[in-house]
Amino acid sequence: MQTALYAGNKSINVVEHTPEAPAPGEVRLRVAYCGICGTDVHIFHGKMDARVKIPQPIGHEISGVIEAVGEGVSGFAEGDHVTVRPLAYADKEENWKREGSHIRPGVKFMGIDTPGAYQYSWNVPANTLHKLPQELPLDIAALVEPLAVACHDIRIGKVKAGEQVVVLGGGPIGMLIALVSREAGAEVLVSEINPFRLKVLGEMGIDTVNPKEADVEAVVKERTGGIGADVVFEVTGVQAGVDVMTKLPCVRGRMVVVGIFSEPPKVDLFQFFWKELQLFGARVYEAEDFDTAIALAAKGTLPLEKIVSLKVELDGLQGAFEEISRGGNLLKVLVKCS
Amino acid sequence: MQTALYAGNKSINVVEHTPEAPAPGEVRLRVAYCGICGTDVHIFHGKMDARVKIPQPIGHEISGVIEAVGEGVSGFAEGDHVTVRPLAYADKEENWKREGSHIRPGVKFMGIDTPGAYQYSWNVPANTLHKLPQELPLDIAALVEPLAVACHDIRIGKVKAGEQVVVLGGGPIGMLIALVSREAGAEVLVSEINPFRLKVLGEMGIDTVNPKEADVEAVVKERTGGIGADVVFEVTGVQAGVDVMTKLPCVRGRMVVVGIFSEPPKVDLFQFFWKELQLFGARVYEAEDFDTAIALAAKGTLPLEKIVSLKVELDGLQGAFEEISRGGNLLKVLVKCS
Q1: Distance between CA A88 and CA A50 in Å, rounded?
Q2: Which DSSP string corresponds to B10-79?
Q3: pTM score over 0.95
Q4: What's the rounded Cα separation, in Å, for the pair B127 and B146?
Q5: Which of A311, B85, B97, B128 has its CA 20 to 30 A from that of B113?
Q6: How far apart are CA A260 and CA A301, in angstroms?
Q7: Is B283 an interface residue toward A (CB < 8 Å)?
Q8: What domains, with CATH codes, occur in chain A?
Q9: Do the Cβ atoms of B273 and A281 come within 8 Å?
Q10: B51-60: per-residue pLDDT in tens?
Q11: Bridge pairing between strands A108-109 and B61-69
């Protein structure tokens, strides 16, 4: 039984590992699949060495099967299919009396701040588990975590049926936001420059615009009868995305910052004044977003399989990180861990 | 009877003017007082010549008395004390089916896009009027318009009793936001560098911090038990204000952009992600904000008289603009127009 350890300096070491009995309050999972997130690529590149304890298994987009149940755990049994909401609390969740428990100070992200899931066997607190329907394929189930991100984002953006939604950036998260918005009854346009992503979006029946070939503002004006978009999701994390973001909303339109900006970009605050725009930050998810994501995945109406570009085993993780870093035509890569 | 005309190039010409009969749907006001707004100072400096038709009377913070009622106007009579919500609609207000009627495309701001109130007599559409209690002094009543701005801002910021509010910038609008927030039951701190403004705020019993002398973030942390502010109002309109703005809110804290940014500042969007911050643009007011402002002014609990630094007549307007431009110790200057 193997564990893939991030060993620093763009290297992954796969080592033998003997599964341990779960501690009280924990379960031991056999990890079925674990997806590669942009954050994992960041870690691979050494950008988050201040948070990761090297050598450490990383990875947090998982599906798995319960192999052993620790003392004091109820509601879960051996053989249950589950996914993990990878937020670990330093103290009891109920101690936080305010909004935003999922992002309160001191919350630890499993797979970054604590060991992650690129391993055969993973012991996790039972209060991070969400049960999966047994009939949901375990590869698709590994997309529940990024799908929960998208569900959280559109909840923060308060997307409603009939609204005009624009998603800036059509990578896996942008695609999922587009799909969940469409499922909620919105009209969706995705702005993306990568031809491979544009092709996949087209196959999904999502309208797209390539900002290298067309004026996104003019396209949105045209689609919305001059009114502007109700909700804009900024998923690029770059200045060009922020520049166009404030041009697209209608009066009192909403924007959601999903991309992560290591440096503060310039933001046209005059537009905030002029149109009373609203900007919402969104980070990870809350329990209800996992519930929504699992229900959506189980419903089977989203073309989630189109987001999976490649499956590798644990010993293919190093190569997968390298291929993603080269900018290969890859959306989600799943690592088969057992 | 006189009119003060903005004649371009930092000059005001006071000329004789014969009052005209109100057109159908209009009333003729005898203007009692008209306050000087930062926007008027901008116009005086030639910054808004693209919108102002020179020569033109400007000014929009008014109190007045109805002198004549035009055909088809009901609900108003000669002798009524009124203020004006200076938004003129190109078409009927009810044609706009969406949110934000007050800022929809095509709305004209009276005193900028159309003639304003620095004159003895002003004809205005009756649908812009709000009746004032006769017992409210007409000088204080000229503060209803900026007070409505503050009421709108704290409504956009959803300020609630018991919340921690920080106002960045303690000029007249920042002061009014602070006073209305305190009236709503919030704990208020104002950040301001000008000693005169700090003194007036102190006299009003508002807590202050001078960012040249103390670390605003540390002060807010201390006041809020480490949690951060519930609502931050950015009223400085400068980069330094934006820099501190994103450091102050609690998890899911709200920020309101009140300052006007002619150039896009850098905004720390990482903090939006990390704490799920929310940023709301606010522009002018809606009818209900005038209703709230009039009720507040009539209640008499706000120390509004402390915001009035100087009263001049129409022929003192040029000098008042020059004194404000020199950065004199002035808060609100009222122009006695009749």
Answers
A1: 18
A2: T-EEEEE----PPPTTEEEEEEEEEEPPHHHHHHHTTTTTTTS-SSB----EEEEEEEEE-TT--S--TT
A3: yes
A4: 19
A5: B97
A6: 29
A7: yes
A8: 2-142+303-336 (3.90.180.10), 149-281 (3.40.50.720)
A9: yes
A10: 999 999 999 9
A11: unpaired
| Residue in B17, B18, B39, B292 annotated catalytic | B39
Are A280 and B283 within 8 A, CB to CB?
Answer: no
| B240 shares contact with chain A (CB less than 8 Å) | no
Residue B39: active-site member: yes
Per the CB < 8 A criterion, the answer to whether A124 and A82 are in contact is no
Collect all residues with Cβ–Cβ distance below 8 Å to B320 and sequence separation of at least 6. Answer: B36, B310, B312, B333, B335
Alpha-carbon dihedral sign for residues A89, A93, A98, A103: positive
- Between vectors from CA A44 to CA A41 and to CA A46, what angle results, nearest 5°? 115
Residues A58-85: pLDDT tens digits? 999 999 999 999 999 999 999 999 999 9
What percent of chain A shows pLDDT beyond 90? 94
Chain B touched by A48 (CB under 8 Å):
no
Looking at the annotation, which residues of A are catalytic?
39, 42
Chain B residue whose CA is closest to A283: B273
DSSP A115: -
* Distance between B88 CA and the closest CA of chain A, angstroms: 16
Interface TM-score (ipTM) > 0.90: yes
DSSP-H helix ranges across chain A: 38-44, 138-141, 144-156, 172-183, 195-203, 216-223, 239-245, 269-275, 287-299, 317-325
Contact between B272 and A278 using a beta-carbon 8 Å cutoff: no
